[in-house]
Amino acid sequence: MELVYNIQLDSGAKYKARGPDNLNLRVDDWCVIRKDFYLDYGKVLEIGGEIPQDANKSDMPRIQRKASVFDQSKANENGMRSKSAFRTAIQLVEKNKLPMKLLNAHYSFDGKLIVIQFTADGRVDFRELVKQLSQALATRIELRQIGVRDETAIHGGIAVCGRALCCCSFLKEFSSINVRMAKDQDLSLTPSTISGLCGRLKCCLKYEHDGYLELEKSMPRRGDVCECKEGRGRIVDRNLLTQRVVVNLEDTGRCVACAKDEVTVTYPEKYKISAHQNREAEEAISEDVKRLEG
Fold first, then answer.
1. Coil, strand, or helix at residue 287?
2. Do domains 74-146 and 220-286 have the same CATH topology?
3. Per residue in 69-123, pLDDT tens?
């Protein structure tokens, strides 16, 4: 019986591999993997279920064995070679004046391939760089461009919530995120508030979005005129999580906090922002916020 394993390389790259269950691999064990034309060396992050009989196994890398002491020694040597290759690559990038930021270099276990990860604002013509690297390092070169979210997942860090970044702990795939999600959650559109360490919109805006939409269904909106036990007023603020609103009283100008069930909306349209004003507010969103959607 073959199982699916999530493998992580020393460069931070991850992929799925298959292997027989009699290897007795556990999480954090290192192993040797056959991938395409070369052997790779990685760590087991997670052990999945059994591979279906009708699944296409030909394209999935296959784990050959659990790493021995000799394999670990050879992998350490490859790690030293990777650092040297990375320094050479940086020198050639600077020489060719290419607009790219190199992140790391990874030698395959058998030394047949070097994978170099980099980030760039756009597409980069690195054909000449690949030729120069092949000549300097005498092996096959693969340059792989990744996004800033993937870069942050590799380096890791602590988020503002005090926990490890989602992208390097449990989040497996990056979904499309937009500013509308922040608006639906009543968050400030200040870039520093809704952006993560990667400089893009926080990933948690996506997987919490459906919950906020559900909470918002029964909540009155800002600007609605309402009645509460203190009197008549207008809703000036609300908290979706606590299901409470802040009412500005007409008579005294005082603001009071109430549970949503304690207020009755009387004129929901009276203080709504006009369509023209709404467009002006949309245009006032800074370019920094738009960039966060990238």
1. helix
2. no
3. 999 999 999 999 999 999 999 999 999 999 999 999 999 999 999 999 999 988 8
Backbone angles phi and psi of 15, in degrees to 5: -160, 170
Q: Which of 67, 37, 48 is nearest to 2 (CA)?
A: 48
Question: How far apart (Å, rounded) are the C-alpha atoms in residues 254 and 147?
Answer: 49
Listed in sequence order, the residues at least 6 apart from 45 whose beta carbon sits closer than 8 Å to its beta carbon are: 5, 6, 7, 8, 14, 27
The neighbour count for residue 5, using CB atoms within 10 Å, is 26
Is the Cα torsion angle 115, 120, 122, 123 positive or negative in sign?
A: negative
Q: Does domain 220-286 have CATH number 3.40.190.10?
A: no
Report domain extents, the chain. 2-67, 74-146, 153-213, 220-286
Tell me if 205 sits within 8 A of 212, measured CB to CB: no
Distances from the Cα of 45 to the Cαs of 30, 199, 220, 265, 284, in angstroms? 10, 27, 45, 52, 45
pLDDT digits (tens, 9 = 90+) for 211-241: 899 988 888 888 888 889 989 999 999 999 8
Q: From CA 40, how far away is CA 193, in angstroms rounded?
A: 40
The model's pTM: 0.72
Q: Which CATH number fits domain 74-146: 3.30.300.20, 3.50.50.60, 1.10.10.10, 3.40.50.1820?
A: 3.30.300.20
Picking from 38, 37, 34, the residue whose alpha carbon sits closest to that of residue 17 is 34
The amino acid that residue 277 corresponds to is: Q
Nearest to 171 by CA among 187, 149, 146: 149
What span, in angstroms and rounded, lies between the C-alpha atoms of 282 and 286?
9
Strand-strand pairing, 62-66 and 30-35: antiparallel
Residue 11 Rama label (left phi>0; alpha psi -120 to 50; beta): alpha
